[in-house]
């Protein structure tokens, strides 16, 4: 049986094609067609080549038993080698258009808040803000009223001289306000986080009435804004080149790493993010008892500068805003392929729930060492 409909359709398509071919084409049109065909061929080649590069051979794995689950024993080169940079490289040098700020008789004082990592990021933000506002930055004060109640000053944690000299070609930094300005009225300001360049330019109007601006907290989060390239590079210079730890901390850190490597050669440094204040702030109570959940709620309610009080823990967890529990961390590391003998240095503070909750991680990886006890051993060795 002949499909006349299909034959008619093919005849029409053939006739149309013949008509198209018979139409006289200009040399320019032919050149355009050839160029587009060539460009499309190059695109297909690059796309497929990218897939070939990304398609690494799968690591050799073997399944072994464990009381809770099974884990993949991955080859050492997959577990311990440095991750691929994917062609990325450090990019902190200023562009040819960059002009260093010369500083002025206007001063920016800052109280840096949060934990150590948050303070470092906030300080790098304030370096950039001082540059934008053409101000002299006074060495930041560290938060002494936080959950940790740490009385350290800037020079206890960071190499103060290195910070000042490394950035002297960018922003003028001084250790303290001039004596004659210590008692003058200051403009006290909470800079709005995630603000643009224009916001800080507007804030310069404060110089009309004040010689000193005091910033009550340093978490401006400039990394998330569409700032000029040179401002972002300045932040990177401050964060990764200027903010070095103080010599005593550097020395203690080197001893710690040397001791860990002598014991095992390779180790994992793990920050669980499972401290009491972290869970209270985020409202994450999955796996906790009713009494623990209530304790965290009360802590959140009584901490005035935490703005959000009523938090649905289930929604937080579904949204991905909660840290993994110690047990989940154990499952995750095991699934990646780390064997139970792996040495793990737990760098975080006191884990909420104590030994009972840590035992869930230790059931997967019993070879744990802890920050406090390990540091005490190092200090004891140094004293003796």
What does this structure look like?
The chain contains 15 helices and eleven strands. The protein is an alpha/beta fold and about 375 residues long. It has two domains: about 140 residues, 3-Layer(aba) Sandwich (Rossmann fold); about 140 residues, no CATH class. Helix 4 crosses helix 8, helix 10 crosses helix 11 and helix 13 packs parallel to helix 14. The longest helix has 28 residues. The chain is globular. The N terminus is likely disordered.
Number of strands: 11
> Count of helical segments?
15
Q: Level of helix content? A: 40-55%
Radius of gyration: 30 Å
In round numbers, the mean pLDDT is 80
Q: What key attributes describe this structure?
A:
384 residues, alpha/beta, Rossmann fold, 2 domains, six-stranded parallel sheet, three-stranded parallel sheet, 46% helix, globular, disordered N terminus, fucose metabolism, glycoprotein, membrane, O-fucosyltransferase family protein
Task: Describe what is shown at a glance.
Belongs to the glycosyltransferase GT106 family. The protein is an alpha/beta fold and 384 residues long. Helix content is 46%, strand content 9%.
Secondary structure layout plus pairing:
Blueprint: H1 4-22, H2 27-54, E1 63-64, E2 71-72, H3 76-80, E3 107-112, H4 116-132, E4 136-138, E5 141-142, H5 154-157, H6 160-166, E6 173-174, E7 187-189, H7 197-203, E8 212-215, H8 229-242, H9 247-264, E9 267-270, H10 276-282, H11 290-302, H12 313-318, H13 326-336, E10 343-346, H14 354-362, E11 368-370, H15 371-383
Parallel strand pairs: 3-4, 3-5, 3-8, 4-6, 7-8, 9-10, 10-11
Antiparallel strand pairs: 1-2
Helix pairs in contact: 4-8, 6-8, 10-11, 13-14
